[in-house]
Write a structure and sequence with these properties.
Radius of gyration: 22 Å
Oligomer: single chain
Distance between the termini: 56 Å
Largest sheet: none
Number of strands: 0
Structural class: mainly alpha
């Protein structure tokens, strides 16, 4: 069987001691370039292995059971949560990314569990109100090191989540932290926000500047693109910011719309779902085919060969890259910068800005445990603590806090 065959179902490469020996008939071994879960390179704090789960499965479960993951239920993707029950939130987006990442990983004989945990954890650090909240926090933190949601995800899983007796954070594996740190590609500067967070873990978890992450991390990153482009189209149609006629003029989705018009049964809801379903399938098929070509040319024999490749191995073809580029430009013009969306996001930025300034000036307005943590801190550290508090808020909690602290809170509609 050749290394890129997809005729046999894949079983995750992650296996814990006692979890199962060998492969069942019809199953195939993971590829030699798949991340090796047994043994993982390290955790920040030494722990005995779990007897029923692989290290990456354990990482996944720790993310799923974390408080920041649950908060994603009420954090904005594009549309504020109370605009409708059917719009994506950060939580549903993360679940959709995980499903796509596992599909890509299975086709390429990668470790599905590592791809999944990276997909589930990639947005843990998002502030309320999506990128609007992030922009507001970054401006507010300009004199204190700025704010970056990828770096904040790492701060959460290495320090801020506090529920285990033996350590702060979730104590995830080196491979998971590497994938989160390099979600957008190599860390290209020692002073990058994610590099600063990882430097604090360097005694056991040295994630180097430069170089790509594992193939599983690359699969999760591109799954993020696939999910948000298609599901933002779906949400924009629901919101009335796009029409089916608009879709017909767009790259990638336009030909799908044209083909489906011949089978249309009069139901817009079914038609819209079919368009996004087929477009997702096209994008997954493209990335799998291109990755197989790249793997055949590289012939990697280990995960480190993927890291040293000099370019992503799991990626779209050049024509697909161009189509997505044009499609994203259309989405920015028609949806993300639509007057209705911009009005709501501008008001949301003001809410985050107000909250940050108020808590910095009066830490006593925060809950008691945060007040105690802020006591006696120098300005820079107090500002970072306030940013951690505000970033952890859900949309609805941020609104409630703003109403408690200020006389006038804008309606985000």
């Amino acid at each position: 069987m050749n290394a890129t065959s997809d005729t046999v179902p894949h079983r995750s490469a992650s296996r814990a001691p006692g979890y199962g020996e060998g492969l069942k008939p019809g199953e195939r071994a993971p590829a030699p370039y798949a991340a090796s879960a047994i043994p993982s390179r390290a955790r920040q704090h030494a722990e005995a292995e779990c007897t029923t789960r692989s290290p990456f499965q354990r990482d996944r479960d720790r993310v799923l059971h974390s408080t920041p993951f649950r908060r994603l239920t009420h954090k904005t993707q594009v549309f504020i949560y109370h605009e409708g029950d059917h719009y994506r939130t950060r939580l549903t987006h993360s679940l959709e990314v995980a499903q796509i990442a596992r599909t890509i990983a299975r086709q390429l004989r990668l470790d599905e569990d590592l791809a999944e945990v990276l997909a589930l954890a990639h947005d843990l650090g998002h502030s309320p109100f999506g990128h609007a909240g992030e922009r507001a926090l970054d401006r507010a933190m300009r004199d204190y090191g700025g704010f970056d949601h990828n770096a904040q995800s790492l701060r959460i899983v290495t320090r801020l989540e506090r529920k285990y007796l033996g350590f702060d954070g979730l104590n995830l594996t080196w491979e998971t932290l590497e994938g989160l740190a390099k979600h957008n590609g190599p860390i290209d500067a020692a002073d990058a926000p994610v590099a600063k967070v990882m430097a604090a873990c360097a005694s056991r978890l040295d994630v180097t500047v430069g170089g790509w992450a594992s193939a599983e991390a690359q699969a999760a990153a591109f799954a993020d693109d696939i999910a948000y482009v298609n599901h933002d189209i779906d949400d924009a149609l629901r919101a009335g910011l796009l029409t089916l006629e608009d879709l017909a003029t767009m790259p990638l989705v336009g030909p799908v719309v044209e083909d489906l018009q011949r089978q249309r049964d009069g139901s817009d809801a079914r038609f819209i779902y079919e368009v996004t379903r087929r477009t997702i399938t096209l994008m997954i098929a493209d990335i799998v085919a291109q990755a197989r070509r790249n793997l055949a040319a590289l012939a990697p024999s280990s995960p480190d060969d993927i890291r040293a490749a000099g370019a992503p191995v799991v990626c779209f073809s050049a024509p697909m890259v161009e189509s997505i580029k044009v499609l994203k430009a259309e989405m920015f013009a028609r949806v993300y910068r639509h007057a209705r969306v911009m009005q709501v996001m501008h008001a949301a930025e003001g809410i985050v800005r107000d909250l940050f300034a108020h808590y910095v000036a009066d830490p006593g307005a925060m809950p008691e445990n945060w007040q105690r943590a802020a006591a006696g801190l120098p300005d820079r550290r107090r500002a970072r603590l306030v940013a951690d508090y505000v970033a952890g808020m859900t949309d609805r909690y941020a609104l409630a806090e703003h109403r408690r602290l200020f006389d006038l809170t804008p309606e985000l509609r």
